[in-house]
Design brief:
With 514 residues, the protein is an all-alpha fold. Helix content is 66%, strand content 2%. A hairpin with a 6-residue loop joins strand 1 and strand 2. The radius of gyration is 24 Å and the shape is globular. It starts with a helix and ends in a 12-residue tail after the last helix.
Amino acid sequence: MNVNKLKEKITLHPIMTILFMIGFTIILSGILSALGIQATSRKISTTSLEYNTYIAGINSLFSFSGLKYIFVSTISNFMAFAPLSSLIIILIGIGVMEKSGFLQVAFTLLTKNAKKINVTFALVLISLLLGVIGDLAFILLLPISAILFKVGKRNPMIGIISSFAGLTCGYGINVIFTSVDSSLLSLTSLASQVLDSNYTFKITGFLFIMFIVVVALAFIITQITEKYIVYKLDKYEPVETEITEEVLLDKKQKKGLALAFLAFISYFLIFLYNIIPGLPFSGKFLDNSQIFYIDKLFSYNSFFNSGFVFIITIGMIIIGFFYGIGAKTIKNHHELCNDLGHSLDGIGRTIVLIFFASILINVVKYTNIGTLIVTALSTLISNTSFTAVPLIILLFFISSISTIILPSSISRWSILSGVTIPVFMNAGISPEFTQVIFRFGESATIGLTPLFAYFVIYLALLEKYNQKEKPINFLKAIRYQLPYCIVTFILLLTILIVWYIVGLPIGVGVTPTL
């Protein structure tokens, strides 16, 4: 039998892969629980700053109560699964912009005189920088990147793969201080007070190293995309319903762009005024109980955070609507209402895939396997005699490995920080640099784990634009990201070691050493 035909026969559909992973997790949790497998670590008390013993055990799903939990929690967990609701809402706004013709005209004008590699570089750079808005960047950028490349008569999968690479490889690399950085810094600060109660942190303490890494990654991800990924994908053949004709900017389109621009500016100024504190009647979108501005934006009680997806969607609808009015592509409210569902056509398979992925993530989280593994890895740091470069390499590897099984940055750092920060401070390494090592480590591997909630969005969009009869499975989706992750792993680890040896400041007033 031909090898390729044999591969096709044994290749699993993504949903079947998820089902096997769920089954494996259930059985594994039963075995580990029966064996009494546990991991012990230490956590710092937020009140006394003393260490308390923390034991991570396994919650078995291989029992009647475990199976009952799966059945009882599945619906509520799916309804609360943020990637699904956010994706559907964002697609409503994108649908209006695309159906009205705005995206076709705007992307054509922006890219018609640009080289392909420059378009890719711009997309990757935006992906790296857009991490400031957190996980919502995945929902917003992945669908738009596909349309950008489709308008440029290139395979939309190139845009999806490269933007996902930019978002994941830059997951822990933020030039601008983010809400996740703030949460991690709180844990870092608490752990540092065990040794030095007067140690203070600066939110600009990561600025220099982050800026250098963003530029380097933007260049490298672009090169991998254009020199490798492009040749792994087939040429995209537009379907009949897609607009493929050349854009000739006529009076109607110019009027549409003018109206869309004025509407956007008006909406943006109203939005901007409501996130600026201290002005008359301003700052209505902020949680003013917080200290850092980024926390005022993204705290759970912030209107900006809770309503951000809807704010963006309304902005997209306004842009698409006013462009459509000016360009005469939207003639009445009936056409507008029909356009709202344009991007949701054929989304059924995506919803089913997300449904099973939500079960997998919920099952793994319940079993506590990820927490147990990270807790076990934390003991390697507490028991090590490493110093300097070997210690940096150890934390980088632990961060990279643990990310695959427990993608949540805050959950992992809440386990690791209490042990890691004092060990690194005793070795003469600053807490800020220690946190940078942790974040760089997760950036190298988070794009490879199906347990990352937005991986399934990436996979679903690849499948949407896949023109082959054979579906895009998990292994293929991961293989597309593997070159980016390998190069990012090597680059970030090298930069950390060189930066430490040379002793350059990593930010304003902060160096790798104490």
